[in-house]
Every structure is written in structure tokens, then in C-alpha cells.
Design goal:
Layout (H helix, E strand, L loop, with lengths): L1 E5 L3 H12 L3 E5 L3 H8 L10 H10 L3 E4 L2 H5 L4 E4 L15 H13 L4 E5 L7 H12 L5 E5 L9 H6 L4 E4 L3 H10 L1 H5 L4 E4 L1 H32 L3 H9 L20 H14 L5 H24 L8 E5 L15 H10 L3 E5 L4 H7 L4 E2 L12 E4 L11 H7 L4 E4 L6 H6 L3 E3 L11 H8 L4
Parallel strand pairs: 1-2, 1-4, 2-3, 4-5, 5-6, 7-8, 9-10, 9-12, 10-11, 12-13, 13-14
């Protein structure tokens, strides 16, 4: 089979590379000539573990290619995937579908036979019908079907998610279109992956419902974490206790500084707007958005309180700025709220992130970017862990203590055990658990000073 993927961003590039690994001939299209030139050299525009090797091996096998020529890519393709961006529209929060509709018109002009046009981008309910209308208006003679096939890729784990998904959802309403999609996903049928065929609207809504539900779990456990701190409970144990219930599940019950990234914030907002327009408000998701916004704002205040109530003139070592590990994505990262707030309160921020500093530097001013984890700490008054990269999970604690001017660690991801940090001589503050002081009295005085 031969397919074209319009858009070589995160979703388009990962999907195209994975389909080519299935044995499909894939052409990825992008208007950005510079991006295409870099991809042809094997240079990835995003950080995703294993993606560079996957792209290079399939380019070498002649199954994967890149171009700016949409017409050439679409002609003769069995299916064309629309994988362009759908950012939140300024002013009202609706998904901006201009790129999707523009791609649909160009695809219509280029088609030269029966083609399945697949919306891979995350789009509101009703978009597939509008795409079909655009194609029909542009090319009344065209033979085509429009299909919805939302992606469920986690940044940092996207290749595994594509190759070994929990499920594949396909909104396809003709047998001909379903057969094309079955052939494309044939390797997953052989692996007995659940493939759900639905109406187009059902498929579109399933994507938003899934992301909003996961966001709700995050906001829920964050509010429970706040309650734990008030009543003396441990949110880690609470999460384990409820997560062992098969009806609830363990995933996405990790208390922290709030969700971010390219999906949850905009998808929750788009679902709210869609529901309002349909006259069926989703009040729970409205609350989820509010809780998450407040969460990010509160994190800087937690850091300030942990530093004795005042960070003016102090240096803070920040570990991790991306919204999650194993990505360079800074979109809606909690760091974008926390770091500027700390700076506004008078702190100097030194930061290190294994992959995100280049992107972060475009979005935050006056941050001192360090070359490694430990350089951030030299002479700093406290360490603040924002992103749980693996290399932060096993810090050399004696070395950390020797580098800091005060042995204070604020862990917004709960990656250390309070009793271990106390034994190592740290004043340790985490989320949904009681703060602990150094076990040694002299060290406790040094950490607390006169202000704690």
C-alpha cells in the first residue's frame, strides 16, 4: 500500500515512520522546506526516543520519504492522513482547524482516484463531515471516503504506543474505507489488538473524552494530595490504595505540579467549547481545567514557603523544565508558570534539562542554563525538581548536600522517599506528604535557620 501523511510534526512523523515499519510505502509532506531537508539528512525536528533510528532504517529501505510536494505525494495514494496542528484558537479556546481545512482542499485538488482521507489530527466532533464537504465542493467528481483515526501517542513512548497500542479507533462508515484501514493496520490485527470501528463523530469524540478523563484523574489526585497534607495522610499510599481497584486503575494517579503538553490543555478546552456549543456542558472538565490552572500557580508559592517564605536574593537550582520526561516539548509545561513566578519573587534560577533547554530558552528570560545536573546546585539555596527525568531519580545525595548552601530539596514529583532524604540530612518538601527535617539536630538547625 501507499499512503501520504500531510504534516511532519510529532503525530505525522511518528505515524509515518511506524506505518513504514509495517511495510507501507509512506511519503511525509510538510510545507517547511528546511524541516524536510533536515529529515532527509536524518535530523529529527523533535526528540522522541528511537525515532531517528526508525526513520533512518525505513528511508534506507525506500519505504519512507519526505517532500514539500503535496500533489506528487497524494497522487496514487490509497490513503492520505491529515496530521497537521490544531492549536487552541486565540480568544475563544476552540480548536483552530484552518490547517486541517486547508489540507483537505489541497488533497482534493491532487487526488486522482479513490482515496481514503484520514483525519489523524485531534479535531472536534463534526470536523470529518466538514472535511468531506470541502473535498466534495472542490472536486465534485472525486471518489473518496473520509475516516477519523485519532492518535493515542504519549510523548516519550510514542513508537511503542503505535506498535503495541491498547486499541485503535477508526471512524469509517463504508465497507470500502474500512477495508483500506484494515489493510493498513493488518500487523495489529495479527497481534489481536482491539480495533474499534465506529461512526466518524464517535471516533472524534472518543479522543477528547479519553484525554479529558486522564486529565481529570491528574487533577483529582492533586486535590487529594492537598487534602493529605492537611490531615497527615500520604498521597502515594492513597493512590496505591485506590489504584489497585480494577475499576480505577493505577495510571495517571501521580500527584505533581499539574498536567501540560500538547494535548491535555487544548483538548480539555476544546471539549468544553464543543459541549457548550452543543448545549450539553461538561462541568467536571471545566473544573479540571480550573484546578490545573490553579495548581501551576500554587507551585511557586510552595517553593517559596519551603525556602522560609522569601526567595529574594536566593539562587534556586531547577531540575527539569519540559512538561514530562523523554521529550523536548515545553508546551504548557508547569515550569513556564513556576520559574517566572520565582523570578518575580526575587530568585535567581539556574536550570538544567536533558533535552528541553533549547526550546525553554525561547520561552523564558533570564534563566541561567547549566551544562549538567550538578552545575545547577553549586552554591544554590535549594533544589527544585519539576520534571522527573531518570537521571534525577538517583542523585548523589552527599554530593548534592556538599554543593548546596542549604540542604533543601523541593520535589514536585515525589521521586524520593521522605525518610531517605531526612536520613541524608535534607529538609525535604514533596507533594501530598509531610515535609521532613534532617535527622541530625545540627543539620536541622542549618536547614531551618531562624525563618522556619
Amino acid at each position: 500500500m501507499r499512503i501520504a501523511v500531510i504534516g511532519s510534526g510529532y503525530v505525522g512523523l511518528v505515524s509515518g515512520a511506524c506505518f513504514s515499519e509495517f511495510g507501507v510505502n509512506v511519503t511525509c509532506v510538510d510545507l517547511d522546506a528546511g524541516k524536510i531537508a533536515r529529515l532527509e539528512k536524518g535530523e529529527m525536528p523533535i526528540y522522541e526516543p528511537g525515532l531517528d533510528q526508525l526513520v533512518m532504517s525505513n528511508m534506507a529501505a525506500k519505504r519512507l520519504s519526505f517532500t514539500t510536494d503535496l500533489n506528487a505525494a497524494v497522487k496514487g495514494a490509497d490513503a492520505v492522513f491529515i496530521a497537521v496542528g490544531t492549536p487552541s484558537r486565540r480568544g475563544d479556546g476552540h480548536a483552530d482547524l484552518s490547517y486541517v481545512f486547508g489540507a483537505a482542499e489541497q488533497i482534493a485538488q491532487a487526488m486522482d482516484g479513490y482515496t481514503v482521507v484520514v483525519t489523524k489530527s485531534t479535531v472536534p466532533v463534526g470536523t470529518g463531515r466538514k472535511v468531506a464537504d470541502i473535498i466534495r465542493k472542490t472536486r465534485p467528481d472525486a471518489a473518496f471516503d473520509v475516516v477519523s483515526n485519532p492518535e493515542f501517542l504519549r510523548e516519550g513512548s510514542a513508537i511503542g504506543d503505535f506498535m503495541r497500542p491498547d486499541r485503535v479507533v477508526i471512524g469509517a462508515e463504508t465497507e470500502r474505507a474500512q477495508n483500506v484501514m484494515r489493510e493498513l493496520y493488518r500487523p495489529l490485527f495479527l497481534n489481536e489488538t482491539p480495533i474499534l470501528f465506529t461512526k466518524i463523530e464517535t471516533s472524534e469524540l472518543t479522543k477528547y473524552a479519553a484525554n479529558s478523563f486522564l486529565a481529570a484523574k491528574i487533577s483529582f489526585i492533586n486535590e487529594i494530595a492537598d487534602l493529605c497534607e492537611k490531615v497527615g495522610a500520604d498521597v502515594q499510599d492513597v493512590a496505591k490504595g485506590i489504584g489497585l481497584d480494577g475499576r480505577i486503575g493505577r495510571k495517571f494517579l501521580h500527584a505533581g505540579p499539574g498536567y501540560g503538553g500538547s494535548c491535555f490543555p487544548k483538548d480539555c478546552l476544546a471539549l468544553v467549547k464543543t459541549a457548550q456549543d452543543a448545549g450539553s456542558p461538561v462541568s467536571i472538565i471545566e473544573a479540571v481545567i480550573k484546578v490545573n490552572d490553579n495548581r501551576k500557580e500554587d507551585m511557586a508559592q510552595r517553593v517559596i514557603r519551603a525556602c522560609g517564605g522569601n526567595v529574594k536574593g536566593k539562587t534556586l537550582a531547577v531540575l527539569g523544565v519540559t512538561f514530562k520526561p523523554n521529550t523536548d516539548d515545553m508546551r504548557d509545561s508547569p515550569a513556564l508558570d513556576i520559574i517566572p513566578a520565582l523570578q518575580k519573587a526575587g530568585a535567581t534560577v539556574r536550570a538544567f534539562d536533558p533535552e528541553g533547554m533549547k526550546e525553554a530558552a525561547k520561552m523564558m528570560d533570564n534563566v541561567v542554563w547549566s551544562k549538567d545536573t550538578y552545575e545547577t546546585m553549586t552554591g544554590a539555596d535549594a533544589v527544585v525538581i519539576i520534571t522527573e527525568w531518570n537521571e534525577f531519580r538517583a542523585l548523589d545525595l552527599p554530593r548534592v548536600k556538599s554543593l548546596l548552601s542549604s540542604p533543601t530539596v523541593i520535589d514536585l514529583r515525589n521521586i524520593y522517599k521522605p525518610e531517605d532524604m531526612s536520613a541524608a540530612g535534607f529538609y525535604y518538601v514533596s507533594i501530598g506528604r509531610a515535609a521532613v527535617e534532617p535527622s541530625d539536630t545540627a543539620e536541622r538547625r542549618q536547614a531551618l535557620g531562624t525563618s522556619r
